[in-house]
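Internal ticket - ligand job 231, pyridoxal-5'-phosphate:
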Amino acid sequence: MIRLEDRFDEVRNEVRSSLLAAGRGLEDTKILAVSKQQPTTAIKTLFKAGQKDFGENYAQDAIEKMERLKQYNLRWHFIGQVQSNKTRIIAERFQWVHTIDRIKIAARLNRQRPENASPLKVCIQVNQSGYRDKSGVDESKISELAHAIMEMPALKLRGLMTLPPVSSTTEDKALFFERLKIIKQRLVQDGIFLDTLSMGMSADMKVAIAHGSTIVRVGTAIFGPRSRKKI
Ligand SMILES: *Cc1c(COP(=O)(O)O)cnc(C)c1O
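stdout (structure tokens):
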């Protein structure tokens, strides 16, 4: 059996070699370890190997893990679809949300973020394919959403996130990633501060890094297959 630490090392090496191949700096892309449906023991192992950022899709499961891992200094990123009835616990317990696609959800998070907490770092999820469930805002509406978020003091807009359709080819993914990079550049030219492109997962981190990803969200390549249970 391959040890978790060894798979993690392999992923770190792949990220480094992809950055080198792209002519980018070795610190330019961070790894977000996607721990959904993975046990807390695995999270502890990765923490000991130096990983601090973990991504979860289900708020309730994540809260249980946070409770069990209280003594560790971890950063939690919400990467699932944000439901209105979950915004309070997300605003209270997470440091990042990658999947903002509606003003209404952003406004709830802004209102519910505790006063003593630093602003919640957020990315706008962009729907580039037009058919992947309902998640993600259409390109034409990004600017409006970005401006709205900038007016919300408890949120800090950091970037854009995309999730290409699973069925897309590497060439298609390269187009989606490149397009997101260009959208980000345009928004920056319009005076919107953005330093993050959350793109790339286990299967496509290399191509995402080649197109400017600053955060790859990696689950299976680090942890192995997910269990059927949610936690
Ligand atoms: C599950 C998930 C990932 C990780 O996927 P892997 O293919 O296991 O690396 C990344 N991003 C999002 C939004 C996810 O839901």
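Auto-summary: DSSP finds nine helices and nine strands in the chain. The longest helix spans residues 170-189.
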